Amino acid sequence: METVRIIYVRDNQTLKTVFVDRDGTINRDCPYCHELDDLQIYDDTVGILKHYQGKGYRIIIVTNQSGIGRGYFSMEEFRRFNDGVVNRLLDLGVKVSATYFCPHRPDEGCSCRKPGIGLINEALSDFRVDIGGSLVIGDRDDVDGQLARNLGLPFRIVSH
User: Fold this and answer.
1) How far apart are CA 153 and CA 145, in angstroms?
2) What are the binding positions for substrate in this chain?
3) Residue 142 annotated to the active site
């Protein structure tokens, strides 16, 4: 199983980018989120993302999804839930360009699982990113914050 990407909007611009965690940051973190009935978007995160989007930042979701590797839900169930998140954000005025996710279990030792930088490297191969002007937003300093530190980027923690 490889790092997986879902690209919603392609562009050729070099843009500052917000790399944002999904579960616990954009939406309520439920155990291995994959049911649309469980989807609850955090208004404060929407406001933060709209702020950066208004300043010309691209929005890209980066998320660990070990529930796939553990067999708790399928790739199709993940995609359906993630599309629900992205569509809800779009309804609220936030355009997500792509989602990059690691489907592996933590014990698999892959290079894409956050706080490793594999997901970001994939995004950098698909998009022109002003990495020096970019940042990471997430709810966990040990994962999202460490990802930011590994990249030398600022980190904005959100808590709900």
Assistant:
1) 9
2) 21-23, 29-32, 63-66, 113-114
3) no
Does the pLDDT value for residue 1 go beyond 60? no
CA dihedral 105, 108, 111, 114 (to 10 degrees): 30
**Catalytic residue check, 21:** yes
DSSP per residue over 94-139, as a string? --EEEEEEE-S-GGG--SSSTTSSHHHHHHHHHSEE-GGG-EEEES
Taking residues 21-32, report their average pLDDT: 92
Closest residue by Cα to residue 25 from 99, 97, 91: 99
Residues within the annotated binding site for Mg(2+)? 21, 23, 139
**pLDDT single digits (tens) 34-81:** 888 889 999 999 999 999 999 999 999 999 999 999 999 999 999 999
Structure tokens at 74: 């399928």
The CATH code that applies to domain 4-157 is 3.40.50.1000
Active-site choice (11, 21, 43, 130): 21
Which listed residue (11, 23, 44, 126) is catalytic?
23
Please give the Cα distance from 131 to 6 (Å, whole number). 20
